[in-house]
Amino acid sequence: MLSLGRFHSLPVIDTRANGVVLDGGQSQQIFLPRQEGQAAHRAGDCIRVFVYLDAEGRLAATTKQPLAEMGQVAWLQVVDVNQMGAFVDWGLPKDLFIPFAEQQHTLRKGDHTLVKVYLDNQNRIAGSTRIDHWIKDDASGLKAGEKVSLLIAEKTELGFKAVINHQCWGLLYSNELFQRIHKGQVIDGYVKQIRADMKVDLTLNRPGFSRDKIDAVGQQILSQLEAHEGSLPLTDKSPPDAIYAAFGVSKRCSSRR
User: Fold this and answer.
1) pTM of the model as a whole
2) Residue 31 parent element (H or E)
């Protein structure tokens, strides 16, 4: 059975001048328009497509990658607001609808906002900016040291809240950041620790400092020395962000050499 808002590999059952017809199962047929530069397909070929509903509520397919899939969170731009709600650009021909009931704050055209993609009670793909309604402080399935994908959400007194793998909240502490980050940014990070209350502390540096990493930093330093005739504008008193910008490590880590 097809899941809306996700990718599926569907077989071609008919070809037309302007596209192909795909078998969606359970006697459902989905038309995939031919796109510029797209390879010709024949009956029996399987095509990986994203399935959604068009403006008329019919099943539609595209090979384009949306900015978010079902269940994911993304930083999207509001392109229209009317008496029904707001619409954001998520990279597909039909904009994603955010009803007023799912708006954490008033949305205006041109705004950027964090949006969770969900399926409403009428089986339609929709968006929500009530992120706390969907994302919780629950580290289930995570472990310390694990590499994760982070979506930077908002700045707090302690640092930056981030959505981990589209599933739960984590926190990056300001005093441990050695590079600039901003709301809406997608960046790789690591689980620093999982606290007793199941809240997650995050870091942008891989926990620990392996021999391979030490050797890699040492090689970077040697290369920079050779490029600058044996001198560098950095010392052990240099600002942490300057050291991070040059070698991708914190001052604390670089001092272990």
Assistant:
1) 0.76
2) strand 29-33
CATH number at residue 157: 2.40.50.140
pLDDT (tens digit, 0 to 9) for every residue of the chain, 257 residues total?
789 999 999 999 998 888 899 998 887 899 998 875 566 788 889 999 999 998 888 899 999 999 999 999 999 999 999 999 999 999 998 999 999 999 999 999 999 999 999 999 988 999 999 999 999 998 989 999 999 999 999 999 999 999 999 999 999 999 998 888 999 999 999 999 999 999 999 999 887 654 455 555 566 666 665 666 566 665 666 666 666 666 555 555 444 43
Output the DSSP codes for 134-199: H-BS--TT--TT-EEEEEEEEE-SSEEEEEETTTEEEEEEGGG--S---TT-EEEEEEEEE-TTS-
Domain boundary among 30, 62, 94: 62
Q: Which domain holds residue 89?
A: 73-133
